[in-house]
Amino acid sequence: MKSDLLSRRDLDFLLFEWLGIDELTKRERFADHSAETFSDVLDLCEELATHYFAPHNKRSDANEPTFDGSTVTVIPEVKEALDAFAAADLIGLSMDQRFGGSQLPMAVAQAGFAYFAAANVATSGYVMLTTANANLLTKFGTAEQIATFVTPMLSGRFSGTMALSETQAGSSLADILTRAEPQEDGSYRLFGSKMWISGAEHEMTDNIVNLVLAKIPGGPAGTKGISLFIVPKFLVGDDGSIGERNDVALAGLNHKMGQRGITNTVLNFGDGTHRPGGQPGAVGYLIGEPHRGITYMFHMMNEARLGVGMGAVALGYTGYLKSLEYARSRPQGRPATAKDPSTPQVPIIEHPDVKRMLLAQKAYVEGALALELYCGRLVDWQHSAESDDELQRSTDLLDILTPVGKSWPSQWCLEANSLAIQVHGGYGYTREYDVEQLYRDNRLNPIHEGTHGIQSLDLLGRKVIQRGGASLAELGRVIATTIAEANAAGGELTEPAAALTAAWSRLVSVTAGMFASGDIDAALANSVVYLEAFGHLVIAWIWLEQLCAAHGKTGDFYDGKRQAAQYFFRYELPKTGPQLDLLERLDHTTLEMRDAWF
Amino acid sequence: MKSDLLSRRDLDFLLFEWLGIDELTKRERFADHSAETFSDVLDLCEELATHYFAPHNKRSDANEPTFDGSTVTVIPEVKEALDAFAAADLIGLSMDQRFGGSQLPMAVAQAGFAYFAAANVATSGYVMLTTANANLLTKFGTAEQIATFVTPMLSGRFSGTMALSETQAGSSLADILTRAEPQEDGSYRLFGSKMWISGAEHEMTDNIVNLVLAKIPGGPAGTKGISLFIVPKFLVGDDGSIGERNDVALAGLNHKMGQRGITNTVLNFGDGTHRPGGQPGAVGYLIGEPHRGITYMFHMMNEARLGVGMGAVALGYTGYLKSLEYARSRPQGRPATAKDPSTPQVPIIEHPDVKRMLLAQKAYVEGALALELYCGRLVDWQHSAESDDELQRSTDLLDILTPVGKSWPSQWCLEANSLAIQVHGGYGYTREYDVEQLYRDNRLNPIHEGTHGIQSLDLLGRKVIQRGGASLAELGRVIATTIAEANAAGGELTEPAAALTAAWSRLVSVTAGMFASGDIDAALANSVVYLEAFGHLVIAWIWLEQLCAAHGKTGDFYDGKRQAAQYFFRYELPKTGPQLDLLERLDHTTLEMRDAWF
Known about the structure:
The structure is a homodimer.
Chain A: H1 8-18, H2 35-53, H3 57-62, E1 66-67, E2 72-73, H4 76-87, H5 106-119, H6 121-140, H7 143-154, E3 158-163, E4 179-182, E5 188-198, E6 207-215, E7 226-232, E8 234-236, E9 242-245, E10 248-253, E11 264-269, E12 282-286, H8 293-329, H9 352-383, H10 388-424, H11 435-442, H12 452-463, H13 466-489, H14 494-516, H15 520-525, H16 527-550, H17 556-572, H18 576-584, H19 589-592
Parallel strand pairs in A: 3-6
Antiparallel strand pairs in A: 1-2, 4-5, 5-11, 5-12, 6-7, 7-12, 8-9, 10-11
């Protein structure tokens, strides 16, 4: 199948030639699989994404969900797509077989999922949330909770949401006000309001399983007093039947710039719209222990953050392919040195500046895709670690790469979408073409699941220094390994290997200097600059990895990899120079700025 | 009046304290005016923009023009706004008094117009096009053409458009196909189709004056065979009465990501929908001489490009002010060093990273506004030059600054809008707030009136080398003057003056090296990198100019200027280092990329 969603050739290169993902089948967890089943899954995902998700992408953007005061209406193609997804057993793709999943490697599941995000990021949001919800419940829920809620999510009867934020508490979850009052039967009653809940309140599944953060009265202040609850839209009988309506009520829909096809809601819990069992409050079931909700949620959130990153990659990647196709087919202008107006116009791909815009997109989206798949394999190593040391090292590395895996694609694959518009010229700015929607859709990614600012504090204020700098050291170790391999190979790898060596060593010394200074305020005031420099270094390393994997191989595909890598090393990596200068001198400009001066 | 459209304090600083715009009243052209009339015009513009343009900005975005096959419907508030604008005599604000204009300085007219663009860029597009159209006609039209078409445009009875592009000819105007056949009575009949025509086909004015590029059969190939015609929607009688319908027919509306409130059309000329005088073809009247259409249009286009730049500034500026207001009123989180969750949340403006995002916006939008007003004053100097030398120098400088004045705000004030969204968090991504629309609206600006790529070729391939490098030399001279003033002042001006000295001298030597190399293909392949580096240098110089104007003055406003300048010099100007490195070695990466490698 030839589609413009993703490049299967690139996926095969990254998964098999580079990451050697088939090696995972030697491990017990993945022993039932083979390179062939991995390949079949990708075929299936591409086919379903093409036939069920892509065709209504524009229509669901132009016809966002509506609320008439009682019912939310979503265009019917969305349900058809979700049903097809569930019928193909894709919700539990990476989940343990004991819970009904397929136990495929995360790297393969991610790659498969990227097809759906590229085809229709809004509709795929419903299944992404259901998957994340189900994964969390299998990890921390009871057997009964799993049977009651996870099993019907896997079959597509139920869907799931994550209800964290409140209007007054977005980035600052410590300030949520929703409360959960314990009942005599061991259940809870919830009262409060949640904001930005995607995938909530629709009629496409028999039930919606909301995972809700709330505070049990009397608990500690801040995040240490937050617990996690299952609050279904309908109560469920012991036999799995749909029972009474729970007191979960839609207060309103948010209207977004993009990703319009998925409901995004303000949800009220326990506002008296319904009275389950004749009592006030929304019935909730505690997950795990009280006051540990943030820990459970963060377990899910790391995977969700990589999921956001992969969503950004998918949007960037399909925009790149669409603009490439446009550039090949659109005649306009003539070479700079051949201005004779009587000669035919040439396809715009022949103009060097158009090649620059395509090459930049290629460098961004292929670099970012490779990073996400690398992180996916780290998750797989965690899930199948054969020693404590392997588990620790995978975890250290994944910890420090996660803020980059979330933020870098959110920034640079959005920039890729902007370049895709620019390649199209005026056409790209219209809804008659596809790329303007991708740009709108992708603009959400630097915001949700932790803004850029939050990611930068996570990186510099936590991940870099955790366990005595063990994560940073582990990343340094794998980078050094790549550089050694590149230097051994020589040839076209010498220049980028030298550039990465210099840049990484500078980052390490700048980082040490920032902490040695004791001027933590200035360090944190520049944390986003740090995140951006760090991210570019990580992607440079990922490109050097790809160069190693392509080394000695001939053909257009590998030449393209080499040229994109060269672009990244020459046009992008040098941007980190001024950023590191700024960090080195711990610039105080923003810190010293005063409200009254604006 | 306190509005969030623009900062009047900043406008007053730039126009009066920095540019000394009241000095212009000593010149004959502006002798009827005073600082007071300038100020009154700004008051009037702010008031009309606030009362007639801002209130329907969201509504016209959500209810774009519709076409039922015969009539285009635009929400009624648009006509009310256009009528109010015309009734206040604003269309001819900078036009000669002999044509019915107010003959105000361009710098003042631009500043006034920026209020309308900030309030509602789509609705203000109608009047901007009418103004540009009328200005072109007064310059190149006959007395009769001016009387017939310009006078009713000034009063608001007629409106104007610019019809250049065709579906197959956007950036490459040489390839237009619309033909104009001469008639015995001296008029022409036009046949062809035009694309991307904003402000065409609506019922809000009695007539629409389309300025249309077309080829007279038998003329030279390419741009040298293009002529310019007036093609009104309705023919106009000798007494100014509206006559027969001309054969200008709407083929369809384009549906854009932003700027949705203004019609954007495909227009057919002479397709037989109407038969004026019983004959086929759209009646057109030649402007000036045959085959000189591109020259006339380019005269208008330079002002239009600065107009696009100012539109981008206006959108960036109002987004900055809206995000500033939000940051001051939104409590969220606590200082990094005070995590006690029982303390109240602080307004987000107290977080250093939010200050960074606000300071970046301030540095972008105030720098870009200052550049546009500086260019406006150059136009005023051209219009009132007291010597050939002054005229030549103003022209040289304006020529080289125009591609920057068009592209820099289009890039960086769009980035400001993205930061305004980011400051708002999730709210910024919703249509319930204002900033997402600004971001969508602003994304057009790097495309129309010559894309970034076109601007970069204009800069490097034409403006830098024209007249033996006279434009570049003149810019170097004024920059050196600023640096000398800064060095004489000393203090906080020393560091930025030194940075600019070094960066400018490097740009000059890199530019010389690029041309000396003879490798013009590689130079032009990196023209966008050149444009970006050049633009940042120009804005750094503009910030140094502002620092000079603020020197020795005390108070929050001036401290804010100093801090924003410091931000630009420390966080932005250093970005030019790697760009100049790349240009210096004339990188071939994009040039060598091949279609088959993508």
